[in-house]
Amino acid sequence: MQAMVIEQFGGTDVFQLKEVSTPQAKPGHVVLKVAATSVNTVDMMIREMGDALPLSPALPAILGMDFAGTITEVGEGVTQFKVGDEVYGCAGGLADLQGALAEYMLADANLIALKPKSISMKEAAALPLVGITAFEGLTRAGVKQGQKVLVHGGSGGVGHIALQLANYFGAEVYSTGGGDAQLSLIESLGATGINYRHDTVEAYVAKYTDGQGFDVVYDSVGGANMLNSFEAAALNGQVITTVSLLELDLSLAHFKGLSLHVVFMLIPMLHNHKRAVHGEILSSLAKIVDEGKLKPVVDEQVFSLDQVGEAHARLGSGKAMGKVVVTV
């Protein structure tokens, strides 16, 4: 089969189109023909950082975590899927797991689910990593009817899914964005847009919560922005973050009694820990999609397999809206 292989870590030019062996089914796994995959920030981190990142695969490697495709072979012990099923998931591209930047992929059956029927392969490939991340964070924080939820970065990958799911769970949702295009997307997905370039945290907390703060803050920006999340959260509120690789003064979180939820959705893949939970979440997401309550946004620029470097550059530019997708 053809695959985009990297033989060294580095810039967007490291990908090479090569012929490699097609994977064979093994117990508990399926082989699938990949239709599409999407680029996540962690894919770029692996490509750039290599061995400095503990989850990076050994070289040569095939990256790409998310996928949508059709099962071509079913391994021993797999009863929930059959040949011909259209599925999606996040099941490779790190550690010893071959990724989705190839014509075929081997996937643990616990890490996949039947693809939502109402969306395309490209849209389905955009959903797994960000969908699981958003779902896990919101459910851990116990988001429910009547709460006010703030999503930082609502036009990005995780953010645009998190704000739709928060709506689905019954919350009143607000989201920050940095320009007219981002705010337009946020509003179209059902949240009240906040321009963080113009409005201070104090100002929008006063305007939308009467100064009380948001019950839940989903911070998909992370880093130093977590201090803004602490400031925006209500007393005894919940803060969810996907980017917490930093040293931070937690004094404000302490005095407000905040609960902090760090979401690192790669744990089941890396440690073979409760992988079936991911399959269950993907099944739940597919149901919500087919109810018309969740729609992954695909960036206007879609790339082919031999344009993976350009796809990485597009995501790295910060200009993409929603998810950057590669068709195989």
UniProtKB/TrEMBL annotation:
Residues 10-326 form the Enoyl reductase (ER) domain. Keywords: NADP. PANTHER family: QUINONE OXIDOREDUCTASE. Transmembrane segments: none annotated. This is Quinone oxidoreductase. Pfam families: ADH_N (PF08240), ADH_zinc_N_2 (PF13602). It comes from Pseudoalteromonas phenolica. GO terms for molecular function: oxidoreductase activity. It comes from the Bacteria. The keyword NADP applies. InterPro entries: ADH-like_N, ER, GroES-like_sf, NAD(P)-bd_dom_sf, Zinc-ADH_QOR/CCCR. The keyword Manganese does not apply.
